[in-house]
Amino acid sequence: MSATIIDGKVFAATIRGQVEAYVTRLKAEHGITPGLAVVLVGEDPASQVYVRSKGKQTVEAGMNSYESKLEAGTTEADLLALIDQLNRDPAVHGILVQLPLPKHLDEDLVINAINPAKDVDGFHISNVGLLGTGQKSMVPCTPLGCLMMLRDHLGSLSGLDAVVIGRSNIVGKPMAQLLLGDSCTVTIAHSRTRNIADVVRRADIVVAAVGRAEMVPGDWIKPGATVIDVGINRIERDGRKLLVGDVDFASASAVAGAITPVPGGVGPMTIACLLANTLTACCRANGLPEPEGLIA
Ligand code: GUN
């Protein structure tokens, strides 16, 4: 048996198309252009790649992109002053501060300085609380993309056993909340979980988000399960540089019912959801109907 491959590239392109179509209407009917501000502090190479990609796709969707690049030694006061300025700017509907920040900056303090209505990452404590209590919020982009793929592939998730591997604030915890919201029975497994293989083997849905290359082998997967691989790990094998997930794709795809590849699975969905969140924030700010199908 061989798993269905869930194509994130195709799905993300569809979402970007829907966002672009809605943006075109917003401009034509209301004279409003959604704007996304991305703040990058320092020169982390991976972050630079992400930020460039976000800016490019924002513009391609017809939205305004504002990039602020600050030097690695930027003070907390200067960064907070910039966030304050973006919070006040009516042309900016979404604000994203690229993580990780340099060590001398307090990430929680910085994230919680963003106006929650503009917090398109969904990391502000207020959005975390709203999501956890089932209220309207901004939903973190990567888990939102995973949820969209799961709903698209499975239809209703109600009553399914879901195991999320990894307990990060960016992916694991909000993913668990979203699955709970869709009436899954949710387990969060992590580095201290006992008999993790047996825990994962119970799952109809596995979301792997730990950041350890190929740590989930095929024999942890229940036959027919749906596997979402959030990992993006750079490794070298046989002298070749490779991008691999947290799941061992070769063995897992022989057992799973469906699986996301790396690259081309969750990755492209994250930025597509960021654009969707920016559009949603813009609609809410202007008292306009929110685009359907693009929010959790
Ligand atoms: N760094 C890695 N993932 C993310 C993300 O989703 N948002 C932000 N702001 N930084 C990140």
List the helices and strands and how they pair.
Blueprint: E1 4-5, H1 8-30, E2 35-41, H2 45-60, E3 64-70, H3 76-88, E4 94-97, H4 107-111, H5 125-132, H6 141-154, E5 161-165, H7 172-181, E6 185-189, H8 196-201, E7 205-208, E8 226-229, E9 233-237, E10 240-244, H9 249-252, E11 258-259, H10 266-285
Parallel strand pairs: 1-11, 2-3, 2-4, 5-6, 5-7, 7-8, 8-11
Antiparallel strand pairs: 9-10
Helix pairs in contact: 1-10, 2-10, 6-7, 6-10
Shape: globular
CATH architecture of the largest domain: 3-Layer(aba) Sandwich
Rg from alpha-carbon coordinates: 19 Å
Question: Whole-Å distance between the termini?
Answer: 32 Å
Structural class: alpha/beta
Order of helices and strands: EHEHEHEHHHEHEHEEEEHEH
Quote the beta fraction: 15-25%
Low-confidence stretches: none
Task: Domain count, please report it.
Answer: 2
The small-molecule ligands in this entry are: guanine
Main CATH class of the largest domain: Alpha Beta
The count of strands amounts to 11
Spell out the CATH superfamily of the largest domain: NAD(P)-binding Rossmann-like Domain
CATH topology of the largest domain: Rossmann fold
Biggest sheet record: 6 strands, parallel
Strand order of the largest sheet: 1-11-8-7-5-6
